[in-house]
Amino acid sequence: MAETVVLRFWKPYQVLTKFTDDEGRATLADYIDIPDVYAAGRLDYDSEGLLLLTNDGLLNAQLTQPQYEHPRTYWAQIERIPDETALQALREGVEIKGGLTRPAQARLMDEPDLPARPIPIRYRKNVPTCWLELILTEGRNRQVRRMTAAVGHPTLRLVRAAIGNISLDGLQPGQFDVLSPQQVTVLKRSIKSSHKGPTRRKH
């Protein structure tokens, strides 16, 4: 059996989470030249941040299947300042396409120290923005954007800062490194410790 390889990659803005594209857009192949690794989940074209890639099919599934409830930390720059009611709604679950979201952690945060985005967010003089940290245990399509929009605060910039115990620390957009065997072991243990088995959800 091949040794498990795991990469952590800072996906830049407007890069596809795949290795080929018929339309000529930027892909993972423009940044990663290690064979036989595949993205564990996806990150939207217009989102940025941490992406894990691995050659281990089981680990890939564990990182992406919702029953493992593997936490993902996002930093979202949103329109206007949410009140406690909006934050509590995010924590308890909001109705989006696909049903009610799982309970999440949500808090206002200071502006993170991030590189400037190549295409700045739209600026509106009379509409303030702020940064929100959300920690989710599921990964539905465009979930963070749908959640913040549902409580009246559209997301302008979205960065995934961490997946479980793996973060962006030490990387810059477009950079990747290979996790050590010890880091891979810790990652696998964290998945097993959070696994609660299949869950039934009310809608």
Molecular structure report:
The protein is α+β, with helices and mostly antiparallel strands. The chain folds into 2 domains: 1-70 and 166-203, Pseudouridine synthase I, catalytic domain, N-terminal subdomain (Alpha-Beta Plaits); 71-163, 2-Layer Sandwich (Alpha-Beta Plaits), CATH 3.30.70. It has 4 helices and 11 strands, in the order βββαβαββββαβββα. The protein has helices spanning 57-64, 84-92, 143-150, 181-194, and strands spanning 6-11, 38-39, 48-54, 72-79, 95-96, 99-100, 105-109, 129-136, 155-163, 166-167, 176-178. Strands 1, 2, 3, 4, 7, 8, 9, 10 and 11 form a 9-stranded mixed beta sheet that branches. β2 and β3 form a beta hairpin. The longest helix has 14 residues, at 181-194. The protein starts with 5 loop residues before the first strand and ends in a 9-residue tail after the last helix. Mean pLDDT is 91; it is low at 198-203.
Q: Helical element count?
A: 4
Number of strands: 11
Main β sheet profile: 9 strands, mixed
| Derived structural class | alpha+beta
- CATH C-level label of the largest domain: Alpha Beta
Low-confidence stretches: 198-203
Helix proportion: 10-25%
The end-to-end distance, rounded to whole angstroms, is 42 Å
Percent range for β-strand residues: 25-35%
What is the residue-mean pLDDT, rounded to a whole number?
A: 91
- Give the full name of the CATH homologous superfamily of the largest domain: Pseudouridine synthase I, catalytic domain, N-terminal subdomain
The number of distinct structural domains comes to: 2
CATH third-level topology of the largest domain:
Alpha-Beta Plaits
**CATH second-level architecture of the largest domain:** 2-Layer Sandwich
